[in-house]
Design brief:
heterodimer; A: 341 residues; mainly alpha; Cytochrome Bc1 Complex, Chain D, domain 2; 2 domains; 13 helices; 35% helix; 2% strand; B: 264 residues; mainly beta; ten-stranded mixed beta sheet; five-stranded mixed beta sheet; 15 strands; globular
């Protein structure tokens, strides 16, 4: 009798596992073999399916904004690798514009400094910033917690995730981290080639990869394609509108420095740069070739031996772009579990 | 085996010796609480909202907000030895608008005569970067300390005063001083944590059945003076760490002991 039940259960699990549309599938954080060790401390907040589901519900819930209009997912849309596709700068509540390009939410477990200026030093604390930002969701965090507490949808989800119906700021933030930590993008054609999983790069793409390694990988390092450090890459020579890292450190040496973005899913995350000033990858590559503006804090790698920028022929630029497009991870972008349900 | 026998023998000998000591009715034994009452003041007057005060530099100030974190209490015995109060329970937000928030009870302090109290104004760097599940009570960013947290630059505001002053050139003559900055996460930044050390000629007698109180004045006007007079006209709004260092240097000596009170 007992055996038969186990068999039926196993069968149900199998069926569920085969059903791609099923959003109740188990989810978990996983460590791609070509990535370094994550920085997030999973001991304090291990991922569970129920925690992920609660986090996802919160991520897509507009009640976390002042007028119930704007969710995290409004500016971090799954099909554009969790960016605000087509928007140079984020477009928040009351149609207000921010001053920076909405960054992708992916592979967050490998970072411990968030935002273009690194002002937030812990994933769990990140959601408080956009919730409170007057041009994003414009709601005091304490009120956001209060709204979740009084919403009838949540007690059972908190119970499933944390064992009791208690709704606290810590649980809310931890659930959102569980969701975001599962947004791992590591299955591009490049990854499958790199990990010998049957992916291949064309001769041109391979040439682009080698050029990239020689000319771009000092900052876009590792298979995360970022060093998570702050650099002035010469987009401007006057940073009075947005001083970047200096806004946090208040040090003159940091004026105009912004965190190196990952290049994964680049094809899906246009426009580019902290201010969204470039619409195409061609513009980005040409910027490094001929558009770098000199200022006191320009990265020394972009001003070596009297040469400003990174000289790249049109042909080299094209090949690098071909390589960069192998970083698109369609399984990540189309994963129904990550999208608004 | 032999050693443990020796140890037991030694222990019982010690017990006999200690129990042979002359009876002392005032002996401080066990543990007891210490209460710290912070009385908010403005110079020599009791602090009140909506009242005009004059700073050392001659500016007139009228407060609508006065709150600050104190934490990391250490009690110093008359022999110079220190007792570090377990950190977790030591984070207190004192808000002049919330009655009772100025009274801090440190429980289970080992018996002894204490002549010093040390603490910090602010939240130490470890707790400022700790796991979110540790941010409970006064440190909950959605709790009583909600407006004492910078979401855009992860960290607590250690000290906040707001109000009006005719010397302010801001709209509505407002002033706002939000002072924080624990020293930076990945690179060194402004550290506005300030240490407080208070000594008392009269010892606080702590032990079972003893519950002393230290009555300490907290002077809001110190933010504007010593070591440097701060002129409101020079900047009525500060909400970033580096600019706040001067005010932090000033309020570092805002606390003075009025008296201790021993209960017998």
């Amino acid at each position: 009798m007992k055996k038969r039940w186990q068999f039926i259960l196993a069968l149900m699990v199998l069926v569920a596992g085969c059903n791609k549309e099923n959003t109740k599938e188990d989810v978990s954080f996983y460590q791609p073999s070509n990535f370094p060790a994550p920085k997030y401390n999973f001991n304090n907040n291990p991922v569970t399916t129920a925690g992920f589901e609660l986090g996802r519900k919160l991520f897509y819930d507009p009640i976390l904004s002042r007028d119930n209009s704007t969710s995290c997912g409004s500016c971090h849309i799954s099909f554009s690798s969790f960016t605000h596709h087509g928007h140079a700068v984020s477009h928040g509540i009351d149609n207000l514009l921010g001053k920076r390009n909405s960054p992708p939410v992916m592979n967050v477990a490998w970072s411990d400094e968030f935002m273009w200026d690194g002002g937030i030093n812990q994933l769990d604390l990140l959601p408080i910033a956009p919730i409170e930002n007057p041009v994003e969701m414009d709601l005091e965090f304490a009120q956001a917690v209060q709204k979740v507490k009084t919403s009838s949808a949540y007690p059972k989800l908190f119970k499933a995730a944390f064992g009791t119906e208690d709704i606290t700021s810590a649980r809310m933030l931890q659930a959102m981290s569980q969701f975001m930590n599962c947004l791992v993008s590591a299955n591009s054609r490049y990854d499958k080639w790199k990990r010998n999983e049957g992916g291949s790069l064309s001769a041109d793409e391979l040439e682009g990869y080698n050029l990239f390694q020689a000319k771009c990988s000092s900052c876009h390092s590792t298979d995360l394609f970022t060093d998570y450090k702050f650099h002035n890459n010469g987009i401007k020579d006057n940073f009075s509108i947005d001083s970047g890292r200096a806004h946090i450190s208040q040090q003159a040496a940091d004026v105009g420095k912004f965190k190196t973005p990952s290049l994964r899913n680049l094809e899906k995350t246009k426009p580019y740069m902290h201010d969204g000033s470039f619409q195409t990858l061609e513009q980005v590559l040409e910027h490094y070739n001929s558009g770098v503006k000199v200022s006191a804090t320009l990265d020394t790698l972009l001003n070596k031996n009297g040469v400003v920028g990174i000289p790249l022929s049109a042909n080299e630029q094209q090949k690098i772009i071909l390589f960069l497009k192998t970083l698109t991870d369609d399984t990540f972008i189309t994963d129904r579990r990550f999208a608004e349900q | 085996m032999k050693q443990s026998f020796l140890f037991a023998a030694l222990l019982s000998a010690l017990t006999i010796i200690s129990s042979c000591k002359p009876e002392d009715h005032d002996a401080l034994t066990g543990k007891g609480p210490v209460t710290i009452d912070l009385e908010n003041r403005a110079g020599s007057a009791p602090f009140a909202f909506g009242t005009n005060y004059v700073t050392a530099g001659g500016d007139t100030v009228n407060f609508s907000t006065f709150k600050y974190y104190v934490s990391n209490f250490v009690l110093v015995k008359d022999d110079g030895s220190e007792y570090v109060v377990p950190q977790a329970g030591t984070y207190h937000l004192v808000d002049a608008a919330v009655s009772g928030s100025n009274s801090i009870t440190l429980a289970d302090i080992p018996a002894g005569k204490y002549t010093g109290i040390k603490y910090i104004i602010g939240v130490d760097s470890l707790r400022s970067t700790t796991d979110v599940s540790q941010r409970t009570g006064d440190l909950d960013p959605a709790g009583v300390g909600a407006d004492m947290y910078w979401s855009w630059n992860s960290g607590y505001i250690f000290y906040k005063i707001e109000g009006t002053s005719p010397q302010s050139t801001e709209v509505g003559n407002v002033f706002m001083y939000h002072i924080g900055g624990y020293g930076g996460y990945s690179s060194p930044m402004t550290n506005n944590i300030r240490n407080v050390s208070i000594t008392s000629a009269e010892a606080m007698e702590v032990g079972e059945g003893h519950s002393p109180e230290a009555h300490i004045y907290a002077d809001v006007l110190q933010a504007f003076t010593s070591p440097m007079n701060y002129s409101i006209a020079s900047g009525a709004v500060i909400h970033m760490p580096a600019m706040g260092a001067m005010i932090a240097d000033n309020y570092a000596d805002m606390f003075t002991l009025d008296h201790v009170h021993n209960e017998h």
